[in-house]
Design brief:
Helix content: 55-70%
Shape: globular
Order of helices and strands: HHHH
Oligomer: single chain
Largest sheet: none
Number of helices: 4
Mean pLDDT: 90
């Protein structure tokens, strides 16, 4: 009889999986924010994360550039955190969105 293949995810509860997804999404948005606002170059981010032994998760493909919907998702994420520091990030990201996508100006 063949043993079933072990899958680490099988041992996680739904809540644990959701928390991991939330942490990954948060890391992707943080990395994306840093690159978009020129706080770090993408290549430097890759090196930084590699030195830590983790992946440089991103909320968009840095080789293609950020799409309007991706920017909107990042902004919404920070708005939902409902903290002053993040509203400042939203302002920075909205400015970038208006520069890249002038049709978003209201």
């Amino acid at each position: 009889m063949e043993e079933p293949e072990f899958n680490e995810e099988d041992r996680l509860t739904e809540v644990e999986r959701m928390e991991i997804e939330r942490l990954m999404l948060s890391a992707a948005y943080e990395n994306s924010y840093r690159v978009l606002t020129n706080k770090v170059e993408f290549e430097d981010l890759l090196e930084e994360k590699s030195d830590l032994g983790v992946s440089a998760l991103m909320a968009y493909d840095p080789l293609k550039g950020v799409q309007k919907e991706e920017l909107e998702n990042i902004i919404t994420f920070y708005i939902d955190l409902d903290e002053t520091e993040y509203y400042l990030r939203c302002a920075e990201l909205k400015k970038i969105m208006h520069e890249i996508y002038p049709e978003t100006l209201n």
